[in-house]
Amino acid sequence: MLPYWIGFNHVKGIGPVRLKSLIKEFGDVERAWYASKVELEGSGIGQRAVNALIETRHTIDLEKEVT
Q1: Helices (H) and strands (E) in the chain, counts
Q2: Cα angle for residues 6, 32, 27 (degrees, 5° grid)
């Protein structure tokens, strides 16, 4: 789970409140990280945060972040 916590720390617009909301919505931080765009849009975090998360997922190497 650590890589996903680190990953979310790189997402602009997702702080503790939004992350808590995502975990509540999806059950855990890993599921929140891999949620589809449609699922994220339905979570109520806002379009900017959705776009930022999707962009970060495409640009960050989680394995590299933990090593």
Answers
A1: 6, 0
A2: 115
Tokens of 15: 């702080």
d(CA 39, CA 55): 16
Predicted confidence (pLDDT) per residue in 4-37, tens digit: 999 999 999 999 999 999 999 999 999 999 999 9
| Predicted pLDDT of residue 31 | 98
* Helix (H), strand (E) at residue 16: helix 16-26
Distance CA 5, CA 22 (A): 12
Q: Give the C-alpha separation, 1 to 47, whole Å.
A: 25
Question: What pTM, to 2 d.p., does this model score?
Answer: 0.92
